[in-house]
């Protein structure tokens, strides 16, 4: 099988699996306990947090570990909106965990506003200015799209947001950007940033939320007061230490590859075909490619590819049950194209020969299907 659905999840790296085995087995102690072996575990956790924070341009006090990025995003929305006063501004290219959090606020009567996308599928400064005002309490703009890989300039967008309301809280979902493109949150005005372990070689069920120093948000999960009372529940020690190690390895590996070069090579196979559309402008992480085939069904192309040993996605794996694609629609992709959308997503460990073989299979499948439909 050639696996090209890395935006949905990645294969866990050995360091992540080894950490789980170590901290579930030999070093199983509760980091909150007072005896020596537990204190060793606590130390290891603190060290891993420090290493992890550096990847974000943060310090360890700014990191809260969660059970997944969905929890991080929910926490940001539930706890980041101070006094629940003012309007909330969200981009039209968010993952379901942000979109549904915003819709929950809307159902409680909060004025939720969506920022339209330009045709290339990202948020411009102008669009943010149009939607935001001095009463905006919270802004959420995804860093890199899980649908298209397009990057939002969150450093500039957070500056713009603070220039309109200095008290606004700026959140970004960084799941598809983390370890793939440079991030230095300390140099930006981003207040909250969500990431997930299983997208970067860590285990499923581990996430993190960056909370800028000085921002006091209420805990979403209360109880025993772990993580300085910011997220209760005994820490998933092996998962967290494995997350830190995997993320470091993933980041180093990502630095060694030219993801956009690989992405462009895939695109070149489809160029000159007026029935194939690349969604996005090219300001991309390089790890995700969204293609739409006019008049075809993405699902059928993906099934044909699977029969020949290639696994690709249709869009967000968390929302395959949703028929229409909210993000492509917001980009203005015509329905005749949007229904024929597939998502190819690589990792730093995807080999070039795998990409070559898979691209041929996908193109052949689409051509065969087109012939069958058009007779
Ligand atoms: N945000 C984005 C952009 C994602 O791609 C995903 C997963 O698909 C999530 C959030 C949710 O991550 P998790 O599976 O850790 O809850």
Question: What report would you give on this structure?
Answer:
The protein has helices at residues 14-24, 36-56, 69-80, 96-107, 125-131, 154-164, 226-229, 237-256, 259-270, 298-307, 326-330, 335-338, 352-374; strands at 2-4, 63-66, 87-91, 112-115, 136-140, 169-173, 192-196, 207-211, 276-278, 288-293, 310-312, 341-345. The chain has 375 residues and is of the alpha/beta class. The chain folds into two domains: 2-9 and 257-374, Aspartate Aminotransferase, domain 1 (Alpha-Beta Complex); 14-253, 3-Layer(aba) Sandwich (Aspartate Aminotransferase, domain 2). The strands form three sheets. The chain has a seven-stranded mixed beta sheet, with helices on both faces. Helix 4 links the parallel strand 3 (87-91) and strand 4. Helix 10 (298-307) packs across helix 13 (352-374). The longest helix has 23 residues, at 352-374. The protein starts with a strand and ends with a helix. Bound molecules: pyridoxal-5'-phosphate. Pyridoxal-5'-phosphate (PLP) binds next to helix 3.
Topology:
Elements (H helix, E strand, L loop, with lengths): L1 E3 L9 H11 L11 H21 L6 E4 L2 H12 L6 E5 L4 H12 L4 E4 L9 H7 L4 E5 L13 H11 L4 E5 L18 E5 L10 E5 L14 H4 L7 H20 L2 H12 L5 E3 L9 E6 L4 H10 L2 E3 L13 H5 L4 H4 L2 E5 L6 H23 L1
Parallel strand pairs: 1-11, 3-4, 3-5, 5-6, 6-7
Antiparallel strand pairs: 2-8, 7-8, 9-10, 10-12
Bound molecules: pyridoxal-5'-phosphate.
The site of pyridoxal-5'-phosphate has 15 residues, from helix 3.
